[in-house]
Structures are given as C-alpha cells and as structure tokens.
Specification:
By secondary structure, the chain is an alpha+beta fold. Helix content is 20%, strand content 43%. The protein has 3 domains: 147 residues, Immunoglobulin-like, CATH 2.60.40; 115 residues, Immunoglobulin-like, CATH 2.60.40; 38 residues. The protein is built from 3 helices and 18 strands.
C-alpha cells in the first residue's frame, strides 16, 4: 500500500470516529448547496457539509456519491473524487449533523473542471406493508478545478479563451447608434462563468458612457462552447464628436481565480463621414451642372425662338 492510500485510509478512519455527531440546530436543511475547489493532482483534502432534520421526528438519511455532468444534469459512470465512511445515518428531530468527506485527486486526472454530487435521501419505513420507500431529497454539487502545479487556471483562462469585440455597425450622429458584439469562446477543459465589464472611452481614455456588464446571467460556458452579447450605444452624440475616436474596452474575469483579460477596439467614423461628405459634394456638383446646363439650354432656346420671329 503506497503513501497516498495510507493517508486516505487514515482520514477515513478519523471520519468514522468523529463523524455524524448531532449538534444544536442553527442552519437550514443542507449547508452549503454548492462547493468549489481548486486542487492539483494527488491532492487529498478533508471537508464537510451540514444537514438539518427540520421535522419533529427522527429520520434515517441515505448518502450516495457519484460523478456528475452538470451540463446534462445527470450522473455519469466516472469514479467520484469523494469518499464517505457511512452510507446511512439517523438524525434526531430538530438536530443538525456534520457530514465529513475525503477528497482524493488521482495522479492521472487531466486538468479541467469536474463535478461530483452528494445525494441525501430520506428513508421512510411503511410499518403496515413492511417495505421500504426511498424518497429523493436534496443534494450538494461539488466542482473540482484541477490544475497543474506549474500552470495556474488564470494562465489557462488567458491563453485558451478567445475573446473578441466585433463592431457590426459604426453608427452616425443623429442617425443611427453604434452596434457591437462581445464574443467569448472557451477553448479549455475548464468550465468558466466569464464576468466583467465593458467601458466606452474617448481618445483621452475618459469614460463617456455607462459600464456594461458581461454575462449578467452568470451562464456557465463549458469546453468548446461560446456565447455572444450584443450592444447598441450612441457613440456620436453630435457632429463635433466625429473628430474623436472611441475605444470599446472589455475586462473579463473568470469566476475561479486570477486577473482579467483585457481587450480593446478603436472606433472611428471620420473616414466614413469623409466618404459620405465627398459623395455628397459630387452629387451636389452634378446637380448644379445639370441645373446650369438646363438654364443654359433654356436661355439658348429662348434666344433662338426670338430670332426666328
């Protein structure tokens, strides 16, 4: 038996001695409902959750652990990272118990995000029929972000996130707003909930509009997935503003650790306005030439008519 197995076994023995002792009830049902860990390969960790029996009678609780696919919300056949000493406990009425567990990350685990779930089910015994009825109750979702010792999750987020700001319509003063998209693609094996803000700055790097939140719904982006947010803003409030560039700046954080990823796009409409102005001048000159030609033709026609009379 190697050192890792001995340590895991020792922790399980400790759990068997100290676990499931009732304490005064001061929490609601199960605490917490979601837990998150940042770990490395071969890490071993002891942690716990608490569960409260809110009924007026003692209840039997069944405990099961399984690997979980949070995207499909289904248990999967992979081996979980958790180990529980007991699979069934009895909780007195209005009491709370602590349920400890051991987390053990195998050495061969690839970096990425994994999920386990601890399912807690109440067990009711029907005295008359003599059979057992298992009623699904509550569960705790645990997320494990496994990283290499020499490569942080923040580095992976920085290197394997494709973040772009795409201006789809530059807009014009008084006529139309500027439209752009924030695009995020997760090219890693981690599950991220990107968050942050988008700011609009002038050429002097001063903020000129309200900040816009990135991913306000805190949507989880799984490996290979993308999401896009669209924005419509008035960058050019007046004619004078067309002579100054605008900067659309995004600051994107991951929800696990680290500093933000910065992106910037510079927007200018001076060239477009110049082209529109040039076209307008040409059209005006053509109209003037047509008008002058018509006037000249009319004058000549009048003189010809007078001479023939």
């Amino acid at each position: 038996m190697n050192k890792r197995s001995v340590l895991t076994t020792l922790l399980l023995v400790i759990l068997s001695i100290t676990s499931y002792l009732p304490t005064p009830a001061n929490a609601t049902n199960i605490t917490p409902g979601v837990k998150s860990y940042v770990l490395s390969k071969e890490d071993i960790l002891l942690d716990e959750i608490t569960y409260k029996n809110e009924s007026n009678k003692s209840e039997i609780v069944l405990l099961t652990v399984s690997a979980y696919d949070a995207k499909t919300e289904k248990s999967i056949s992979d081996s979980p990272f958790l180990a529980l000493k007991k699979k069934q406990i009895t909780i007195p009425a209005k009491k709370e118990v602590t349920i400890p567990y051991v987390i053990s990350i195998p050495k061969e685990t690839p970096v990425g995000t994994y999920f386990n779930v601890i399912l807690i089910q109440k067990k009711e015994v029907k005295a008359k029929q003599g059979n057992v009825n298992v009623i699904p109750s509550v569960g705790v979702l645990l997320s494990f972000h496994i990283e290499e010792s020499n490569t942080s999750i923040n580095q992976i987020f920085f290197n394997q996130s494709d973040i772009q700001i795409v201006v789809t319509k530059k807009g014009l003063p008084y006529l139309s707003p500027t439209e752009f998209e924030y695009q995020y693609t997760n090219n890693s094996n981690f599950v991220f909930k990107p968050e942050g803000e988008i700011r609009i700055l002038n050429a002097s790097q001063q903020q000129i509009l309200d900040r816009y939140e990135i991913n306000p719904q805190r949507k989880a982006i799984y490996p290979g997935e993308s999401f896009t947010q669209s924005y419509s803003v008035k960058l050019w409030p007046d004619v004078q503003s067309i002579f100054s560039n605008r900067n659309i700046v995004s600051k994107t954080y991951n929800d696990i650790q680290g500093s933000p990823v910065l992106n910037k796009v510079e927007v200018s409409i001076l060239y477009q306005v110049g082209v529109i102005g040039g076209v307008a001048v040409v059209l005006i000159l053509i109209l003037l030439w047509l008008l002058i030609s018509w006037i000249i033709s009319a004058v000549r026609a009048k003189k010809t008519k007078e001479s023939t009379e």
